[in-house]
Amino acid sequence: MRSLTFRRSRDDAAREAVIRDRILAAAGAAGVAPIVVNTGMFHAQRERQLPPPHEPVGVWLATHPEAWGGGPTALRTIAFLAARGALPSHFYGASATAFDVRSTADNDLARILAELAGDRAAFLLLHDPIFDGAPLEVWAAGAKELVQPGRMFDAMVQYPTATVLESLAPYRGR
Hints:
alpha/beta; two-stranded antiparallel ribbon; 7 strands; globular
């Protein structure tokens, strides 16, 4: 809820700071490494390859392991995405937009996972060299990006359905 104010004001750096502070507090309380960052794809990137242009929490954690008591290899990042559902098309006031990745291009990894998983979640480790090689095209925030998933994330989890977050409840159904 603390980050909602920054989401609405578009202060992405302040929003990342709130998320980072929560992660550091949780890591300090746990007192163990490695840690797994599960804060959403844009925030969790260990190497920034997707927008927005600010420094994501994952990048900061990867470059400051002393802050959370880990070593350079103790950070694990996971890309979480949904196969279908409704999400705000714009975090600042637009209506929720339905999506289904099964209607995307034939070579889309998310679409293939969604078809194979059906109504279950799918998990994919990204340690295979194929994911660190030539960049793959993805659509993110309305633009085509070139990414190397294995350098950004250790794994991908695709769950069957997404809904508008409770913190964005005022935007439901617009």
